Amino acid sequence: MVDALSSPLRPHLLLPLLHQMSLDSSPAHDRVFSRAILALDRADHHQDALFVFRRLIPLSNCPSSPLSLLSLLRILLSRGLLRSALHLLLSPGSDTSRLGTQGINLLIDVACRLRRPDLALHAFAAIRELCCYPDRDTYRILMKGLCDAGLLDDAVHLLYSMLWRISRKGCDADVVVYRTLLESLCAAGRIELAEEILGKVLKKGLRSPRARQAFQRPVLSVAGNLEEMKRIIDEALVVRGVRSLASYNAMITDLYAESEFAHAGKMLDEMRQKAFRPLVSMYEAKIAALCREGRVEDGIRVLEVEMVANDCVPTTRSYNLLMKGLCVKGESTRAMRYLDRMDRQLGCVAQKESYEILVDGFCAEGLFLDAANVLEKMHRRKYWPECKIFGRVIQGLCSIGRIYESLLWLEEMLSQGKMPEASVWSSLVYVLFGMPTIEKDPYMDVLLHDLLTVD
């Protein structure tokens, strides 16, 4: 029943149902509350989502609510409400400990983004007391936070606490963690310490005893500038450490995120020479970086040429990244072709995000009829748009005088339990009553009467 009332959302029925479930004597399920919170947030009913977590869950017989807490935390973080997320994590009676390592990672991430490395270190020290165990994301988030705050000595101590993992598993995907510290040390002028740490990491990552006997650590002081030091560090971590698909993937993805196309391309070629097959995620990172730089044509070449040549099948995310780049560049009509291409590709289905990208793109270009057509396709696929998507299309149709279509979409929006913003109502009122030159349609009067008298 909760799922049925959540899609499309009917808050006037959903909230009483959740309240009745809270008062029921049978145990309530945390996953039901979690789905309801996410559905309320998607429809911009933020206060109702908070009400469910703060009031209804404590009234229920739900033994714990880690999933609901995680859903609400992700909502707050996605909206940039860092202090609210931190307060929620540290509030008395919070189920943070039940979230395990994932909850601690969230706490550390929020503390680092708020420039509170002291709180992040305190959370990391308490992780074992909560019967949790730090994973790669824990070290990656904390290492970046410490380096950004300039606490390099604490960052070095954190890396040494990781060395026992290297001795058993090799460098693997942890290379991005070591890279963060080593580059920060070089930027701070502590090159000798960076050389010493790099040598220890590589020596523990080399499995062969013969290789250990002949090992010589890389020399960073011979490099002429910081960029050359970074190149030596990157090549040493992947080439001289234990080669694996995970280490290549982590490093190449990180390089594309920093727009280091030449270095990443060289490492990708070397990876192929070592008989490693590139992953789709590597090409997606490259497409995202190219589109971010405005090089959409190069991104198209990656998807249509490079991926095909290396037997990589594009995913929905690959198309979404390219479509978003085209829409930002003002080529939404061209991006529409990739939506049709997804429909023809086996196993690749356009998701809600794909349609929303196109609607935003067409609205930005003033092609509101095309945006309405995409919204219609989205509706036929049973993907329920957000309030903002409805609002942009309705306001756009009003701006070009398509009043009847705008009222139809308003009716659909209200039927899904979504409330338009004040600006949407203002656009409708202005068009209906502020432009007397528009010829009135008798069907419009009936539809407007139904909308204004809706319960």
From TrEMBL:
Gene3D superfamilies: Tetratricopeptide repeat domain
InterPro entries xrefs: PPR_rpt, PROP1-like_PPR_dom, TPR-like_helical_dom_sf
Pfam families registered for this protein in UniProt: PPR, PPR_1, PPR_long
PPR repeats: 135-165, 174-208, 244-278, 279-314, 315-345, 351-385
Repeat recorded as keyword: yes
Top-rank taxon, per record: Eukaryota
Start and end residues of each PROP1-like PPR domain: 244-365
Name of this protein: PROP1-like PPR domain-containing protein
Lineage: Eukaryota, Viridiplantae, Streptophyta, Embryophyta, Tracheophyta
